[in-house]
Amino acid sequence: MSEPKSSGFQPDLARLRDMLLRFAMLQLRDRTEAEDAVQEAMLASMARIDEFRGQAQFSTWVFAILKNKIVDTFRARARNVSTRVYDEEISADAFDALFNERDHWKKDERPSAWGDPEATLSQTQFWTVFEVCLTNLPPATARVFMMREFLDVPVGDVCVELAITKTNCGVILHRAKMALRVCLQNRWFDEKGA
């Protein structure tokens, strides 16, 4: 799917649109805004198809365009700040059992070595497992993680968009990363080593 247009490249637009819409819905939490962002991203990608060089997958290229559309939506929302309520869905107790009274890892809970990170990230199967782990996060937690880590939205903008404090944002990001670590350990790294 990473071939340039000139070699008969035909993207599966229906499948791509579904993936883009799921991602936009997770971030924007508004079907109309999500559909608008996806439509704008797809139209922009088709209008600029000559710029696609095939150095990455077509879907990756369109996702990058969508990310910019989502960030634009966040900026527009920030100009019209409302008092949305943000519910934290992972309790503080969820990870306390992993640490001792001095806040060090308990012996049996320490993360195991994950080998060569570059080799792991290049494996398509890893990203499938990562998506499953991300999907299993509480939606509000996944949203904060995706805004910060995938969309690269500054913490201050995440806080404005979600009406949360920087401290709360930091806690949510920490919990998201911990939950992803545990999930990846159980579903990918332990399976690979077994």
From TrEMBL:
One of its GO terms (biological process) is DNA-templated transcription initiation. Keywords: DNA-binding, Sigma factor, Transcription, Transcription regulation. Residues 131-180 form the RNA polymerase sigma factor 70 region 4 type domain. Pfam families: Sigma70_r2, Sigma70_r4_2. One of its GO terms (molecular function) is DNA binding. Residues 15-79 form the RNA polymerase sigma-70 region domain. Belongs to the sigma-70 factor family. ECF subfamily. This is RNA polymerase sigma-70 factor.
